[in-house]
Amino acid sequence: MNSIIFTAAARLLVALMFVFSLFMLLRGHHLPGGGFIGGLIGAVSFIVYSLACGPAEARKALRITPEVIAMLGLGIALLAGMFSFFLGDPLFTGQWYWVGGDSYETSAFSLNTVLVFDIGVYLVVLGGILSLTYAFEEET
Amino acid sequence: MEALTAIVIGVLTAASVYLMLARNFMRFLFGLVLLSNAVNLTIFASGRMTKGAPALVPYGEDAPLGVVGNALPQALVLTAIVIGFGLLAFTLALAFEGYRRMNSVDTDEMRFAEPKEDTTK
Amino acid sequence: MSWVLVMPIAVPFLTAVVAYLARNYPAGRWISLAGSVLSLVASAVLMAAVLDQGVIAAQMSNWNAPFGITLVADYLAAVMVVITAITGLATAIYALGEIPEETESLGFYALFQTLIAGVTGAFLTGDLFNLYVWFEVMLIASFSLLVIGGGKDRLDAGIKYVALNLVSTLVFLSGIGLLYGVTGTLNMADLREAVANAENQGLITVIAMMFMVGFGVKAAVFPLFFWLPASYHTPYFAISAIFAGLLTKVGVYALMRMFTLVFVGDVGFTHEILIWVSLLTMFTGVIGAAAQTDFRKILSFHIISQIGYMTLGLALFTPLALMGGVFYLVHHIIVKANLFFVAGLAKQYAGDTDLNRIGGLYKSAPLLAVLFIIPAFSLAGFPPLSGFWAKYLIVKAAIELDAWFVAFVSLLVGLLTIFSMTKIWGMAFWKPHPEGYDPTPDRAPPKVTRAMIVPIAGLAAMTIVIGFYPEPFVQFAQTAATQLLDPSDYVTTVLGVQP
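^ Those are the sequences you sent over. The predicted structure of the assembly is below.
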């Protein structure tokens, strides 16, 4: 697509949407949001970019091929789920470490496997959707 | 509300069966999309419908206050939609590749895996 | 404890991830092989635990049943997981010889391991919706594996396979939705009671029929099998072997699970239908095979006819019949995968799979001829190979019920199976090669044929072992059948277990 307005606007939009997708990812679990919806928004941002500048340019901006991103995400999500092995819990049991407190209300923030799992989901969705859409865009 | 949903499911299923009976693979695919939506609606409706009561937990509470909609079918439908999306995207890609290689979306003309028997032998 | 159940699923998944990242390097195939070995170890550990404790269950993420996802293994599930791992290992070795590098770099091994993970998950899950998810994992991997490597025939076969399997999945899924609507639970152990107590038993029977159709397409039973012979003869031989061995059996397993655990309220109706479906499946499959002249097409039709025996074991619904069904399931996976492996090697030696265009294999590859005889005769039910015991149990169960017609059809189908196997033997191995020259093993590099003959020999050895020492296997099948017919152990383990 060769529209100057779209190309110029895309640059701004893409960055904004991508940052928003990260915001949605980090906000998840306790508030609406999470890896899946974040991954979708992130994928849309790269789709807008590829519509504006072509899939070849978008692939370059992504640096890693989307298939690899998806598989890495799958691995991260699985390992996050398997982390509970070391604490003697069943698969996918969330492990929480509260920094500066002992619950959601009192602590400043938490380190947990749920977020790692969500990051994995984010990467799977981002990579999966982008590999599909890039393949379709490059066909035509 | 359930009755209306049931009618919608019926209409969707009927339309999808009509489309899936076509020889054209693209029509089949659209029929599949409709059928998958009908099935998702079935799951959604089978969890019973509660009007205007989202399954949200107010801030500071551990459980929702009062009667809320059944959240489990929603989770199931979300999963089914995502899986269905992936499968349909794959099938569309397959149909497209099939069209490029075989020059046809007519399933009667796709006779490469099982070529017509040579009856002259 | 719960990790015993998780590992057989997690290992192939992690292997898939690593194998995909290494897909462009030769290391990828060795990672896949190592992963398959590890899967076998993990499933052996699971088997040991099941033999030790009967039924084991685990609640994922500490959510108690019936709310969370349950993984559960009884005798049947454990043996299916072990046999999946064995077939997976055999295929991983076979693929070393067969799969070209271009296909490897498309992520072949990652897809293959994902398929194994999906199949294992389907065997181990105790939750109906989770079963649907595992079916989809398995399906998406199988779709890609079927068309990988290109070619018009693969695309054509893939389109038909994908189309019919998607429809069956949707039927299955709407069955799940309706069942949830009636009972309010999706945990299979919990469903047993909920279904028995449901007010609207008529609706339950309708839902049971939806499950029968959904699983029936996957299992390729009588009116629903058309996708199978249309697609199984096109992909790589390693792939068609694992498909033939495992995929239809997942459908049979799901039928066995649902129609012994959940839908037992109207056995007279549902299982009567299953008997007729099974008989027609057996008969049409074997007749279809008689009309074919392609090595793999004959074998594909024989999958259908053999599926009939397994569902017959379920349909007769006596301890002996179910025992025969379980035994048949295990025996058939080994034998059928092996026959497809043989077909691949025969193609390497003779250049084709169309029986009219090959021949003389007995002379040029006597070892292969011997290795073909073992699974082929086992499939046909010659004593003392494994297939004999499997058929013997089913026929005996039929006779005990005074179901003479059923016993007659089973024996007749066995006879017709011999006809097909001798046809392959006569045309591929016995008669001289039609082009006048002797096909020699020189056509494929020895490295390739060595990788291909190892799994064939291994599986053939297993067939012989089961044939000559059937005692422990029959006893195992008996316990599995007892557990299926009286799942109170299963139910209490799932619902009572504290994580």
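Chain C is about 80% helix and 0% strand. Residues 268-490 of chain C form one domain.

Shout if you want it in another format.
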